[in-house]
Amino acid sequence: MSTTPRTPAEIPGLTAFWPLAEPAGRERRALGGGFELSEAAGPMETEEGGVFGPRVLRVRHGQWLEAPRAALGALDIHGPDVEMTLAAWFRRDHPEHWQAIAGVWDESRDKRQYCLFAHARLRTLDHSLERVPSVDRLHAHVSDQGGPTPGKAFCYTYATGATPAPVGTWCQVALVYRAGRVELWRDGRLDHEPGSNPFPAPGGLFDGGTDGAVFAIGANSVRGAMGNFFGGLIAGVAVWRRALRADELAELAAPLARLRELHPEPAPSTLLGSAFVG
Fold it and tell me: Residue 17: CB partners within 8 Å, gap ≥ 6?
């Protein structure tokens, strides 16, 4: 039996898929070309042991990849009735809160659209919009306003999964937006959290216009500069302009066993060593 995992390219309707296996100093292109992501804070190294290519991307804390707004094309997903899926395969190795994995999310200029985050401090309760403590969870953020939720200091429309995703653990995560709600899928299943996942978001996705947010992997704009930095390994990022079915989302988790085999969980003493800057 083949040990090669099914790739995102085999799931219909793919918009972009980045295996992220190119050498440091090179632009990262989506499979088949286009949607080029540039290094924004120095060369980004890779490590052996990929599942969609020979290597995986090492994101040092403080680095990120981005595509400029003018080049987003089909990644600029917005409107009242849209559906979408954003998926990533990653291992977080840095303990800082609020780590942006990937998305189109500019908090500095109120140009939020969609984004995946790891290890946010808080999750939102859908019945009250109260936020309560959250540790080592994954989060799928969407916005129909661009800016903060009305009457709140920040955007509160995000789904939070129930399963911890601690430092050193390989995860497959997907943001799915459909039928006016956002869902967080973890390792191929809906990571149901009563009151927080799925989360109602009936207004669609914000249209950021020609001067909206960039598409970024590893950071997002916050307080006037890029921040919420991710630190760890990323084996791939994919986007569809449709909501994947449950069976398709389950297939996305297939590469995890191989990733965990190729990259064993690091010892805690090594996690804040030479792999990080800043």
Answer: 7, 8, 9, 30, 31, 52, 236, 237, 238, 239
- DSSP letter at 10 equals G
Q: How many C-beta neighbours within 10 Å does residue 163 have?
A: 16
**What distances in angstroms separate CA 19 from CA 8, 38, 54, 162, 236, one per listed residue?**
10, 14, 9, 27, 5
Tokens 């390994």: give the residue.
233
Q: State the Cα–Cα distance between residues 121 and 133, nearest whole angstrom.
A: 6
Domains (ranges, CATH) in the chain? 33-264 (2.60.120.200)
The C-alpha torsion from 200 through 88 and 82 to 197, rounded to 10°, is -10
| The Cα angle at residue 115 between residues 114 and 118, in degrees rounded to 5 | 155
Closest by alpha carbon to 277, among 234, 216, 230? 230
Contact indicator for 155, 112 with CB cutoff of 8 Å: yes
Along the 278 residues of the chain, how does pLDDT read in single tens digits? Answer: 334 456 899 999 999 999 999 999 999 999 977 899 999 999 999 999 999 999 999 999 999 999 999 999 999 999 999 999 999 999 999 999 999 999 999 999 999 999 999 999 999 999 999 999 999 999 999 999 999 999 999 999 999 999 999 999 999 999 999 999 999 999 999 999 999 999 999 999 999 999 999 999 999 999 999 999 999 999 999 999 999 999 999 999 999 999 999 998 876 655 543 333 32
